[in-house]
Amino acid sequence: MRKSLKILIVGDFLPDVGGVSYYVFNLAFSLVRFGHKVTIFHTRTGLDRNFRIFYIYRLPHSLIHKLKCALKGLIHILGLTGILPLIITKPKLLLPALLYIGKLSEIIEKTKAHIVHSNHLSIRSLVACYVAKKKGVPCIITAHGYDTEYPSNKLEYLIRRKCIDMADKVIVPTSWKAHRITKLYNAKNIVVIPNFIPCHQLDESRLFYLKTSSKKSLGYANKFIITFIGRIIKEKGVFDIIKVARNLKMRNSNASSKAIFIIAGTGPAEQELIELIKNSELPSLVLYFGKINEALKLKLLLASDVFLLPTYWSEAFPIALIEAMYHGVVPIVYYFPGIQEILRHGEEGFILSRGDLQDLLSIIENVLFGKVSIRNMQLKAFHRSKRYCAEYVVSNIVNVYWKTLYGRRS
C-alpha cells in the first residue's frame, strides 16, 4: 500500500476569483480525501491560515517580514540569474522572485514536502521548481489558459521555456494544448490530464427531480432558462447574449413568456451591461443577478436548460462548462481549440463560430420551440461530464506524482 504523500501546491487560492483558485482548492480538497497531506502557498500577501484539512501560507504583508523573506532569497540571486539572466533588468519580477524563494525555502523545510505542484508557466513556477530542485524535491507544473498561447515578448517566452525545462512534468488539459506547448517550447515532459470538478452522488432521476424543484424555487417553473455565469467583460461574449436576446424578442413577441436569460457574475463591464439591458427594454427577458454565492450558483445551474459560453478567448478547459454539464445543462459555446475534446457538437451541446450571432439565435430558437430534444442532450451532457469528476481525474495526477518520485529514485 502506498504511503501518504506530502504535497505543496503553489498558486492562487480562494477567495480570489478565477479558474486557478478553484483548481487549487478542488485539487487540495481531493488530495486530502485520498489521504495525502496538503500545504498551499498562496502567492499573495496576507496572513497564514490553518484550515482543518490543510495549511495555507501567504507572502508576508508587513515590510519588515518582506525584507527578511527577500534577504533569504537574495543568497540565491546568482543561481536565479544564471537560469534567467534577463530578470536582473526587471525589478518588478526580481523582487517577487526573491520573496517566493525565501518563503518557499521556509515552507519546504517545514513541511518536508515530497512533491511541489505549481500552477501557470510563470515566474512563481520557475522559482518553485528552482527551490524544489535545490531541496531535492520533484516539481510538477499545471499549465492553464494563456500559457499555451504565443508569448508576447522574449522574456515571457524564456520564463515559460525555463519552467518546462526545470519541471519534472507539465500537465495540460487537452491534447491540442499539449501539441501547442510541445511545438512552442520543444517540450518533452507533457502529460494530458483534463480539468475536473467535485461531483456528488447524482443519477438521472435525482438530477431531473432537482432541476424541476430548482426551477420552482426560483419562480420559473414554466420557463426555459438560459444562463451565463462568469466574468462580466466583453471578451467573455456577455454582450453577444444581450444582442441575441433582443433579436429573439423582435422575432418572437411571446419570447418573454417562454424563456428567461439569467446573467450572473461580476466584472468591469457590469454597469455597461445593466444599462444595456435597461435601454434595450429587456428586463422581462434578461435578468442580471450580479455576484452570486455557491448555493445560488448550484440552484441556478440545476434550474438551467442551456448554458452560454460565447467566449472570444482561447480557453483551456473551462471549469464552468463542465460544472454546467454535470448539472444537466446543455452548453452553447463559441469555438476555441480543444473544445471538441470536452464536448461533441450536436451531441452534448453546440459549438459555434466566434461571433456568429445568427447561428446562436437559430439554435436557441430550435431548442426553445422544440426542434431539438433538449432532455436527451441534457442527459448526454450529464453523462459526458462524469469523466471529469475529481475522483477519477485527481487519481491520474497522483499517479504522475508517484511515477515522478519513482523515476527519480531509479
Description:
With 410 residues, the protein is of the alpha/beta class. The model has no long low-confidence stretch (mean pLDDT 93). The chain has 16 helices and 14 strands. Helix 8 crosses helix 12 and helix 9 (238-251) packs across helix 14. A hairpin with a 4-residue loop joins strand 3 (49-50) and strand 4. The chain is elongated, with a radius of gyration of 23 Å. The strands form two sheets. It has an eight-stranded mixed beta sheet with strand order 3-4-2-1-5-6-7-8, sandwiched between helices. The protein has two domains: 6-197 and 390-409, Glycogen Phosphorylase B (Rossmann fold), CATH 3.40.50.2000; 204-388, Glycogen Phosphorylase B (Rossmann fold), CATH 3.40.50. It has helices spanning 19-33, 63-74, 77-83, 91-111, 123-135, 154-166, 175-185, 204-218, 238-251, 255-258, 270-279, 294-303, 319-326, 357-368, 374-385, 390-409; strands at residues 6-11, 37-45, 49-50, 55-59, 115-119, 139-142, 169-172, 190-192, 224-229, 259-264, 286-290, 306-309, 330-334, 350-352. Helices cover 48% and strands 16% of the residues.
